[in-house]
Design a protein that fits this description.
With about 290 residues, this protein is of the alpha/beta class. The chain contains 13 helices and five strands. The protein is about 55% helix and about 10% strand. α11 links the parallel β3 and β4. The longest helix is centred in the middle third of the chain and has 22 residues. The mean pLDDT is about 85.
Length: about 290
């Protein structure tokens, strides 16, 4: 993979490109902040070329494919867009209301596809093994990623009954004061990478806990402290974070763990169902 800034590389090689490649190059150079969020299919539509041409453009520059090229684009952006800037970008990208609705669904489908294609099954199984063997489990998430954390915490606690969720540094240090090398800390961190999550992962690492990162890229700062990292694509040209693929990854992890601890989970669920019925947790279906 080329090491130099990808935008400089594109500019320098433009004279060697075909007409279609020049169209792609010009668009990328003129839309540096939005292009890293685009799938290969969407970049093809924006530049009015085929998706195959976009892939060939990436390989022409020396990348293995569009996914690696897209990561280089992300790494080369001078700064991560703030929420207001992403809102403006969303308006620029989606100026047709009906088309926008379908584009958002397609972007999420592309994120799931990218996540599945790049999934390292060995790392996935290793993460599950750590969780299955943990004495206690801590789920660390902040800001919008709290939505993922709540979902993960809810089901892991149903399975094990030993899971806590943490979403502030001050309270987190108190909650994790007794963390040991028998425990697992799962850090959920997506761009723009909340500092609190990274700090708590670093603290847990000092205590020799096993760190599992669920994040978007290998360059994510939480991977520095992770024993194993699972990656889920969250690219979306919008001010809102796209967590469809991360949630799908988490759902797969929960299901995999549940299947490996079937007897325990079944017993706990039967006991919980009795409690839920006793206290009428769920609305009864009307006849």
């Amino acid at each position: 993979m080329p090491n130099k800034n990808v935008y400089d590389q594109i500019a320098q090689k433009r004279s060697q490109m075909s007409k279609s490649q020049v169209k792609i190059a010009n668009y990328i150079l003129e839309h540096r902040h939005s292009v890293p969020f685009l799938t290969g299919n969407k970049l093809a539509k924006q530049t009015e070329v085929s998706e195959a041409t976009v892939v060939r453009f990436a390989t022409f520059l020396g990348y293995s494919g569009y996914n690696q090229f897209q990561q280089a684009l992300v790494d080369s952006v001078e700064k991560q867009l703030n929420t207001a800037e992403r809102l403006q970008m969303s308006r620029d990208m989606h100026n047709e209301t009906e088309r926008t609705i379908y584009d958002i669904f397609q972007d999420d489908i592309a994120n799931i596809t990218s996540t599945v294609e790049s999934l390292n099954i060995d790392d996935f199984q290793l993460a599950a093994k750590h969780i299955l063997e943990a004495e206690r489990i801590y789920v660390v998430a902040n800001r919008s990623a709290v939505s993922l954390g709540v979902f993960l915490h809810y089901y892991l606690d149903i399975i094990f009954g030993n899971t806590e969720i943490i979403h502030t540094t001050a309270a987190g240090i108190d909650q994790m004061y007794n963390v040991t090398d028998q425990d697992v800390v799962i850090g959920l961190s997506f761009a723009r990478y909340t500092r609190n999550t990274i700090e708590l992962a670093a603290f847990a690492k000092e205590r020799q806990a096993t760190i599992i990162a669920i994040t978007d890229h290998e360059t994510s700062p939480i991977t520095t402290y992770a024993d194993v990292s699972l990656f889920a694509s969250s690219n979306m040209p919008s001010f809102a974070d796209s967590f469809t693929a991360p949630l799908s990854l988490i759902n797969a992890l929960i299901t995999y763990i549940g299947n490996h601890k079937y007897e325990t989970v079944n017993t706990r669920l039967e006991n919980l169902e009795q409690l839920w019925d006793r206290y009428q947790v769920f609305q009864e279906k009307k006849e």
